């Protein structure tokens, strides 16, 4: 099988290197990068073969327990790619970059976000946790600095003082979240990936990403749940 035997070229290595340095890359940027890497190394390029190009890299990453994964922005539905370490599925994969107290603040913030109704946690609620940490108390000013770093490193997203999980975090931590928050974590009924910000059917409890809700109900005159067919009572975004 020629596809299975595909070699990792310099173009593949260059693509992987850039992806790892960025942490997460939007699909349109990944397509541009694919073209650039192939052109630089003078190898065959086809605009519709990005997935095949990534599959070749993933086959070579398999023994290293790593993988390039595709995920969706919960805000606008755009596709993104991130390199995931499959050997470490817990928050401990962040341990080399952050101190124990910073990781505890991240875990507590994650709790607030996932256990919330809308997938967000206010900065006030997060900062109130700072002096209740088990590792040691953290001053609010220090907690503000740490939250800023989590946003810069693309683990959290912030808008008007409200925090949610960044697309990178959802792609990397999906299995961890699904197994550690079994009672509340759910997959989107449409795209079947983890949903943090979602609308939920009042009748049967299924959830859908907001972009998936928009897409699914676009052509329907009366919005009905794809699972139980009851009227979808949430406002369509």
Structure characterization notes:
This protein is an alpha+beta fold and 237 residues long. The protein folds into 3 domains: 10-64, no CATH class; 91-174, Winged helix-like DNA-binding domain superfamily/Winged helix DNA-binding domain (Arc Repressor Mutant, subunit A, Orthogonal Bundle), CATH 1.10.10; 185-236, 2-Layer Sandwich (Herpes Virus-1), CATH 3.30.40.10. 41% of the residues lie in helices and 15% in strands. It contains 8 helices and 10 strands. It has helices at 10-22, 27-40, 50-61, 100-115, 123-129, 140-152, 167-180, 210-217; strands spanning 25-26, 66-72, 79-85, 121-122, 156-159, 162-165, 186-187, 194-195, 198-200, 207-209. The strands form 4 sheets. A 3-stranded antiparallel β-sheet has the order 1-3-2. It has a 3-stranded antiparallel β-sheet with strand order 4-6-5. The chain has a two-stranded antiparallel ribbon with strand order 7-8. Helix 1 (10-22) runs antiparallel to helix 2 (27-40). The longest helix is centred in the middle third of the chain and has 16 residues, at 100-115. It starts with 9 loop residues before the first helix and ends in a 20-residue tail after the last helix. Residues 1-5 have low confidence and may be disordered.
């Amino acid at each position: 099988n020629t596809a299975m035997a595909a070699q990792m070229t310099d173009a593949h290595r260059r693509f992987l290197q850039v992806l790892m340095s960025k942490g997460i890359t939007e699909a349109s940027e990944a397509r541009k990068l694919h073209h650039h890497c192939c052109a630089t190394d003078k190898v065959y390029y086809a605009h519709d073969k990005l997935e095949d190009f990534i599959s070749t890299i993933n086959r070579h990453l398999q023994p290293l327990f790593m993988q390039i994964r595709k995920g969706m922005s919960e805000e606008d539905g755009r596709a993104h790619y991130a390199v995931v370490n499959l050997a470490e599925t817990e928050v401990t994969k962040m341990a080399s970059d952050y101190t124990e107290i910073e990781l505890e603040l991240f875990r507590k913030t994650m709790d607030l976000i996932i256990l919330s109704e809308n997938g967000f946690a206010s900065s006030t609620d997060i900062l109130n946790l700072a002096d209740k940490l088990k590792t040691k108390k953290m001053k609010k000013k220090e907690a503000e600095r740490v939250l800023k770093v989590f946003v810069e490193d693309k683990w959290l997203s912030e808008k008007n003082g409200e925090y949610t999980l960044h697309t990178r975090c959802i792609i990397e931590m999906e299995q961890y979240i699904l197994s550690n928050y079994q009672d509340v974590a759910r997959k989107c009924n449409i795209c079947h990936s983890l949903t943090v910000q979602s609308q939920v059917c009042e009748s049967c409890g299924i959830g859908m990403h907001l972009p998936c809700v928009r897409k699914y109900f676009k052509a329907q005159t009366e919005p009905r749940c794809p699972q139980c067919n009851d009227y979808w009572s949430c406002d369509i975004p």
